[in-house]
Amino acid sequence: MAKIILDNIAHTYEPNANNPIFALKEMSLSWADGGRYALLGPSGCGKTTMLNIMSGLVRPSHGKVFFEEREVTSMITEDRNIAQVFQFPVIYGTMTVYENLAFPLKCRQFPEDQIERKVREVAEILNLQDYLSNRAKGLTADQKQLISLGRGLVREDVAAILMDEPLTVIDPDLKFRLRRKLKEINDKYKTTLIYVTHDQNEAMTFADNIIVMDQGEVVQAGSPKDLFERPQTTFVGYFIGSPAMNLYKCSASSQNEISIGAKAFKVKTNINSNSDNLKLGIRSEYITVESEHSDNSLEADVIEVEDFGNYKLITASFDSLKIKAKVKRELDIPSEKVILKLPAEHCCIYENNKLI
Amino acid sequence: MPRLYTFLKYFFVVLWACFVIAPFLWAISTSFKDFNSVTGGATYIPWLQFEPTLDGWSVLFKPGSQGGINIIGPYFNSIFVTLTASLISIVLGTLAAYALSRYTFKAGIVKNNDITFFFISQRIMPPVVLSIPFFIFLSSLGLLDSLAGLILVYIVLLMPIAVWIMVDFFNRVPREIDETALIDGCNPFQAFFKVVLPNSVPGMLVAGLFCIIFGWIDFFFAFILTFTKVQLLPVKIVALNSSITPWWSLSAAALVSVAPLIIVAFIVERYLSKGNLSGALK
Q1: Which of B179, B186, B199 sits opposite A94 (nearest CB)?
Q2: Cβ–Cβ gap B185/A88 under 8 Å
Q3: What pLDDT is recorded for position A3?
Q4: pTM of the full predicted structure?
Q5: pLDDT of residue B278
Q6: Has residue A1 got a pLDDT over 80?
Q7: Average of pLDDT values for A139-143?
Q8: Residue A55 touches partner B, C-beta closer than 8 Å
Q9: Whether B175 contacts chain A with CB within 8 A
Q10: pLDDT-above-90 percentage for chain A
Q11: What's A244-355's CATH class?
Q12: Which residue of A108, A172, A254, B133 is most buried, as measured by CB atoms within 10 A?
C-alpha cells in the first residue's frame, strides 16, 4: 500500500502530431494511502486514461508517477502491484472460478495454502463460494464481474484497487450491497480504492473524496459536501446534483448584490469584478417557497409540479428563465404563481464559469 | 403460416442435403462398379442394377507391378506434410497475428495493415508465378523431391491463411484480457501463453482446418517439386489416368482422399460457427 502521486501528468495518444489532443491535461494529484476516492466525470473526460497511467497500462507522455517516494513512471504493470477492475467483466474463460480468483496470487507465487484461504475468503464476500469449481465462462454477466472484482480483492498488499465503472453490469440491489462491501474492505484492509464512475449518486455514496473531471482536466476535488454546496465551476454545479444547479447569467450591481434582468439579489460573495460573464448558481434544494415577498424572493409562474414520492420538484419560469426548486412533499404549491426565495448564503457566483 | 414456414425450411434443408450428399453417393456407387457397369448406362443400386466389385478399390492398394498404384506411401506422405506444415504455420501464424493485433509496427510507410496484407498477398498470386522461385529455392537447398522441401513450401502457402484468420480473431479478443493478465502479475509472454492462448483454441482450430484443407488438396506444388522419391496423394491419384479413364478406381481414390478432411471437419465444425471468444467479455 502506498500514497500515489501524479506529478505534472499529461497524456496524449498522438505524441507525434503537430497539435496533439490531450486526453489528460497537465495536472498534479495525490491519492492518500487507504483513501476511498471516486473519479467522476462524463464519458471521454480522461478518467480511464488516468487509471491506466496509475496501473502502468499507459505510460504518460508528460510527467511522473510516484508510489510514495519511488518513481514508477516507466515501471511495467506487473511490477506495480496494482489491481484494476474494468467496466465489463474480464474473466479467463478456460479456468474455473477458483482458478480465476487464484490467478493473481499464483502469478506472484504465493504459497498454496495462503492462496486457498484468500480465495475462499473473497469468494464468501462476493457470494461466489458455491461456484468455485464451475467454469467461469458459464456464469452470468454479474457473476463474471464479481470474479473480476474478486481478482482485485485477493491481494491484500496491492498499492491500490482501481475500478473502472465496475458495477455497470450488476443489478441495482447487488450493486448497493457490493458498494457497501467495498467500503468494508477499505475499512478492514485500508487499501486505497479509486472508483471511476459517471454516476454521481454512486460517487457520493461510495467515496470520501470525489475528483470531478471534464475534458481531460480535474475541475474539482473534495468531499461530497464540498462538491454539492460549493461547486468550483459551473460544470460541477451542473454535473453534480439532480436536478442540476440552477444557473443564470447576471451582472454585479454592487459588491454583494447581483441582478438578473431588473431583479436584484443579495449574495454573500464579495464581487470585485465588472465581468460580463457572471453567473448566479443555486441548488434547487436550497430554494424555498414563501407565502409573501422578502429579500431575495421572486415571483415565478408555475410550469409543472412533479411528485417524486419523497419530495416535490417545482419547475417555474421567471423572466423567461426556468427555475427548479426541490421542496417537501407535504407543501401545498399554488398552481399559477409561486414566491420563491434564493437564500443569499447558498448563492454561488461564477466568473467565467469559475467560483468567485 | 408458421407451419408452412417450417415445411419450407425443412424442404430446402433436405434439398440442400441431397445436393451435397449426391456426389458422394454417386462416387460410392461408382467405386464398386467395373468397366461394363460404368459404361453400360446409368445405374445406381448395387446388386439390383449392377453387380458390385472391389476392383476399383483393390487398384489403390496393389503395387505397380500388379497394375495398381499403391497409395499407402503417398497417403502417409500427404498426412505428414500437411499436418507438419499446418502445425508450424499455426504456431508461427498465431504468434505473428498476436503481434500484429496487439502492437503497432511502423517502418516508413509500412504499418500493421500492410504487413498483414503482405502475408495475404502470398495467396493472391497465381501459384504458377511462385513455382519457378520455389523450384530454384529448393534446388539450391538440395530439398527438391523431399518431404522437408514440401513442408517448407507449404508453410509459405499456409501461414498467410493462419495469419489472416488469427489477426481477425485476436482483433475481436478484448485487449482487457491481456491487460488484466498484466495487472494480475503476468509478463507479456505469460499473458499470451497463460491467458490469451488457451482462449484462442477455437480460432486456432478454425485456422488449422483451413490450413489442412489447403495443404491436403494442393496438387500443383506437389507435382512441380517432387519427382520419384517422394509423392503426395493428389499426384499419385492423377497417375491413375490412362487412355481409358478408370472412373471406378478414381471414385474410390476420391473417397479415400476426402475422408480425412471429412473427419477433421466433423471435429472442428462446432467451432466454425462460434470461432470467437464468446463469453470472455460481457
Answers
A1: B199
A2: no
A3: 87
A4: 0.76
A5: 43
A6: no
A7: 85
A8: yes
A9: no
A10: 26
A11: mainly beta
A12: A108
What letter does residue B125 receive in the DSSP assignment?
S
- Listed as ranges, residues in chain B with pLDDT below 50 are 275-282
Burial bucket for residue A212 (CB in 10 Å: 0-12, 13-18, 19+): buried
- Say if the Cβ atoms of B182 and A78 lie within 8 Å: yes
pLDDT (0 to 100) of residue A274: 74
CB B230 within 8 A of CB B214: no
pLDDT in tens, A153-163: 898 788 888 98
Q: Is B185's CB within 8 Å of A92's CB?
A: no
Partners of A110 on chain B (C-beta within 8 Å) are: none
Identify the band that residue A126 occupies on the pLDDT scale cut at 50, 70 and 90.
Answer: confident
A306 alpha-carbon distance from chain centroid: 27
**Per-residue pLDDT reduced to its tens digit, B142-198:** 999 999 999 999 999 999 999 999 999 999 888 889 999 999 989 899 999 999 998
Round to whole Å and give the CA distance between A174 and A180.
10
**Closest-approach residue (CA) in chain A for B189:** A78
**Degrees (nearest 5) of the Cα angle A338, A342, A348?**
150
CB contact under 8 A, B180 and A148: yes
Grouping H, G, I as helix, E, B as strand and the rest as coil, residue B47 is coil
- Minimal CA–CA distance to A96: which of A150, A137, A142, A127? A137
Q: Residue A224, preceding bond cis, omega within 30 degrees?
A: no
Question: How many angstroms separate the CA of residue B109 from the nearest CA in chain A?
Answer: 15
Task: ipTM value, please give it.
Answer: 0.75
Using the beta-carbon criterion (under 8 Å), do B184 and A141 form an inter-chain contact? no
The structural domains of chain B, ordered by start, are 2-53 (no CATH), 72-272 (1.10.3720.10)
Residues 6+ apart with CB under 8 A from A229: A283, A346
Q: Which chain A residues have a beta carbon less than 8 Å from that of B279?
A: 91, 93, 137-138
> Could you state, in order of their start, the residue ranges of all structural domains in chain A?
4-234, 244-355
Distance from CA of A170 to the nearest CA of B (A): 11
Residue of chain B whose Cα is closest to the Cα of A141: B282
Q: Which of B183, B199, B279 sits opposite A77 (nearest CB)?
A: B183
Could you name the CATH architecture of A4-234?
Answer: 3-Layer(aba) Sandwich (3.40)
Strands (E), chain B: 106-107, 110-111
For residue B24, give the nearest of B272, B257, B265, B264 by alpha carbon.
Answer: B257
CB contact under 8 A, B280 and A84: no
Backbone angles phi, psi at B33, to 5 degrees: -100, 170
Cβ pairs bridging A and B (under 8 Å): 69
**Contact between A151 and A90 (Cβ < 8 Å):** no
Confidence of residue A171 (pLDDT cuts 50, 70, 90): confident
Higher pLDDT, A229 or B244: A229
